[in-house]
Design brief:
195 residues; three-stranded mixed β-sheet; globular
């Protein structure tokens, strides 16, 4: 057991150093997220964690037309209170399950709030950290959100987008957790083996 990170420095060290050995290759949590699920792209859109020739790159999901399926961000949980809830996914229904978790995420006011009076769309910081997975501008990000928020809110968002001065602001992120009896992360590398 390597423990849970309790501050920004420990979180920064935790995700690239803790992971799984799968088929003789180590995959950190960062490798699984950005290398495998995000098509080997960094959060800023540049090259991901697997360099050319890395055998782990064969496990990367292909991003269609260079675009990552942004719904993965509503299926991943790092243990923070502001993360999407932990869910179980099945291989035969993953597409429908990703649609459900994305819609559920945006129904929560701490993740998505429309303020027509201010002409501001308030979003979870997840969409700021992975903005490239949602769009290249505030309008494109809002259009990506539109896919998940439901018909009534779509109309409201459409009206906001037509007004000048539309903005997106990001809400605070709660890094706390509800874990009890956890060991504090010591910075050591942890690995589990999957055969």
């Amino acid at each position: 057991m390597v423990g849970a990170p309790s501050n920004a420095f420990q979180r920064k060290a935790f995700f690239p150093s803790v992971g799984y050995n799968v088929g003789g290759h180590f995959y950190s949590f960062d490798d699984l997220e950005s290398g495998v699920l995000r098509g080997n792209k960094s959060p800023k859109g540049g090259p991901g964690p697997f360099p050319a020739g890395d055998p782990r790159a064969k496990c990367s999901l292909d991003a269609q037309e260079g675009q990552v399926d942004n719904r993965i961000h509503f299926a991943l949980n790092c243990g923070a209170k502001s993360c999407p809830p932990v869910k179980k996914f099945s291989s035969d229904a993953v597409n429908e399950e990703l649609a459900i978790v994305a819609q559920a995420f945006f129904q929560q006011p701490e993740n998505c709030k429309l303020s027509p009076a201010e002409n501001v769309l308030y979003l979870s910081k997840i969409l700021m950290w992975y903005a490239n997975d949602f769009g290249k501008s505030h309008v494109e990000i809002a259009q990506a959100v539109r896919e998940h928020i439901g018909e009534n809110r779509n109309e409201e968002l459409d009206l906001m987008l037509k007004k000048p001065g539309f903005k997106i602001k990001y809400m605070s992120y709660d890094w706390g957790n509800d874990a009890s009896h956890t060991v504090t992360f010591s910075g050591g590398c942890g690995s589990c083996t999957m055969l």
